[in-house]
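FAQ: What does the model actually see?

It sees only this:
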Amino acid sequence: MSRYQDIVLGGATVQKHVRDIAKDEVMLQLAPELGYGEPVTKPLRIYESSAGTAYLSRQLADAGHKVVISNYRVQGIPGVAEVEADLNLALPFEDASFDCILCREVIEHVESVPHTLREFRRLLAPGGRLVMTFPNRLQIRSRLFTLLSGFYRGMKSPINLDVAFGEAHINLIGYPEMDYFLRKCGFAVTGVSSSYFAASDRLLAPLRPLIKAATRHALLAHKPHAEEHDKTKPENRAYNSFIAEVITSPELFYGKDVILSAVRVADGQPTFPAPIAL
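And it is asked to produce this:
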């Protein structure tokens, strides 16, 4: 079976990896307003950061949305507007320029995750959506690899010193840290899923109840009065319960990537609780 499928972009046929197709389908499920596969009645302003070949953005542009992409160096991607941008700096757009931002396998390359998330929030209109993907370092096989080696999925050995800064995964964090950064930067998480699974990982299913129980104990009972990690307040317990449920869900226990959706909340508004679709 071929790992690539033919798709049509701007009237031309290109090949897209089946893994990318699966990832993009989940991203679109978490952003229903994009209406992919249906006639676009209200074109949205979409920005994809460090988009590379931008197959998903080009598909959305073909569907009728207004799409802008950026790359570290302009690559001449057809069918969309393209600008040069460094995600470690201020992005070259006005406030509230977009209704939706896509960040696909990029956030783990930036120098400061909070800086980039604050820039994304600045660029989004009120209520705008961010859809982001990154490697899942808490996936079960990655956890076992960490136990044995100290490294994890997405960074299985030290980065070679001759690799240019930012080309490798210099800031690969787990879901709990990403959730914290998102909420502190003014986002509410509305959906978390995954798209990349290996059938062999299901052999590790007997470990899931044990890990789920251990996770809940660590997040809800262990050292309940620890500084900066108080577990006695109802709001903290609710948030910790949410994190425990997400990271031990089938999607993130087995899935090799994290795909999440978050919406920009107004200044001063709570970012938790928020609706969640697992």
